[in-house]
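> example.struct
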């Protein structure tokens, strides 16, 4: 066992009973795995289900929980009914995380537990108002306390045998919508269907950024050439989701690039 794994286990043990916000990404997967390994049934992994969660992510959460024997549950959140979330200002994430905490805090209180989020050190440098909403409600960030960056999280996940160790970074579907453009169920559904269509073609690292009838595709550096070579299939997959125009961003995949200028 590496020093980093021991450090994270000590942090988690020090937090006591824990409700982990489990989205299916490598950060929350590692945290949920360690919490389960350290505390057993005193750890609960919870996945928030709403139109902002891609169907493939929910499937990944179910599979992961089943494989590792996690104590796991789904909760239905309704951030889409909040006017501040729909308006999609630069504080949208704050209102989304507030909705999440409204569901997780009662679960934690009933079990004498603390809410834990899979925030890593690198996340602190991005525009993440949701972190403030979580902290205001008493959430803890064990990965940060253990001094883990994203690369360190991936290394630890690989070390302990988590298949998702190299899973591309994910984010809620609303992050594909430029600030100021209203977030609606129809928009999120269109983005989800377009991204699922691209994944069915074998693309892994991607974003479909929503600009009305225009979809701006971001593909990983290693996949851009393939996107060009298979442009007919790519266009068909994205248009099938309801877009009229399909563009390929030559800068490629950049997680959180819609936050540029507001960090």
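> example.seq
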């Amino acid at each position: 066992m590496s020093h980093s794994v021991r450090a994270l286990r000590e942090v988690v043990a020090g937090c006591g009973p824990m409700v982990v916000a489990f989205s299916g990404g490598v950060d929350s997967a590692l945290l949920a795995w360690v919490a389960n390994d350290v505390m057993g049934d005193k750890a609960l992994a919870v996945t928030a289900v709403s139109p902002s969660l891609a169907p493939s992510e929910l499937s990944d959460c179910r599979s992961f929980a089943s494989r590792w024997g996690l104590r796991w549950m789904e909760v239905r959140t309704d951030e889409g009914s909040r006017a501040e979330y729909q308006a999609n200002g630069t504080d949208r994430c704050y209102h989304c995380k507030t909705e999440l905490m409204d569901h997780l805090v009662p679960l934690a209180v009933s079990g004498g537990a603390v809410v834990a989020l899979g925030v890593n050190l690198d996340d602190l440098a991005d525009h993440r108002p949701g972190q403030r909403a979580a902290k205001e409600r008493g959430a803890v960030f064990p990965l940060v306390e253990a001094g883990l960056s994203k690369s360190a999280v991936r290394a630890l996940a690989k070390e302990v045998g988590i298949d998702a160790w190299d899973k591309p970074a994910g984010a809620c579907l609303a992050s594909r919508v430029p600030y100021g453009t209203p977030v609606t169920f129809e928009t999120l559904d269109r983005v989800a269907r377009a991204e699922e269509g691209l994944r069915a073609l074998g693309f892994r690292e991607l974003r479909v950024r929503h600009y009305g009838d225009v979809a701006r595709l971001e593909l990983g550096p290693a996949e851009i050439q393939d996107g060009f070579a298979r442009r007919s299939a790519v266009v068909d997959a994205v248009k099938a989701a309801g877009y009229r125009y399909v563009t390929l961003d030559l800068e490629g995949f950049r997680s959180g690039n819609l936050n540029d200028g507001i960090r």
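> remarks
Residues 4 and 156 are 7 Å apart (CA to CA).
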